[in-house]
# Entry
Amino acid sequence: DQQVKQNSPSLSVQEGRISILNCDYTNSMFDYFLWYKKYPAEGPTFLISISSIKDKNEDGRFTVFLNKSAKHLSLHIVPSQPGDSAVYFCAAVDRGSTLGRLYFGRGTQLTVWP
Amino acid sequence: EAGVTQSPTHLIKTRGQQATLRCSPISGHTSVYWYQQALGLGLQFLLWYDEGEERNRGNFPPRFSGRQFPNYSSELNVNALELEDSALYLCASSPRGLAKNIQYFGAGTRLSVL
# Structure
């Protein structure tokens, strides 16, 4: 069962513009969300996270927005740079659970072109 | 500080054989997680070890097993390999406490079953 969904397998954005990556989830028990970035031949790298008690978290060029009522979150990258080209995974966890696992989406391939 | 290290980088096996994958967590991390990333899919949770004990396993057959050693390193064993076991196997580790939900990944082991 895919409890975290990234419905866009790819996104292409021009350098300097905004990249918006979307993620939807179905499990209302999820209360912590993470974004990971993955380059080829490397493991996923933690990027930014947000707790369900917030609706926005910002770190430099990266901002994550959470809409709990819609069970939707998005990652904004402004301005986009060619080095941001990677696969971005959305992940979620129920921190009250003892299961320990993260639930991942299938990823969105972001390509930033000059 | 060294990150999560995995070995080998690549592993080629034939159907029916056994594969052993190894993972060393970040120093100070006590939890180790294993994920499978098959082609075109997201990260599928396999196993979680903490303090030497298996805490949770995903929806995989029993021929996927592992263990965690006293130094917190871990092994993933896959017995009776099948063609569909070909995938990237990622190991992650996490600290205790409030930061436990951020999992830090290694570069993975690419398993090819011929």
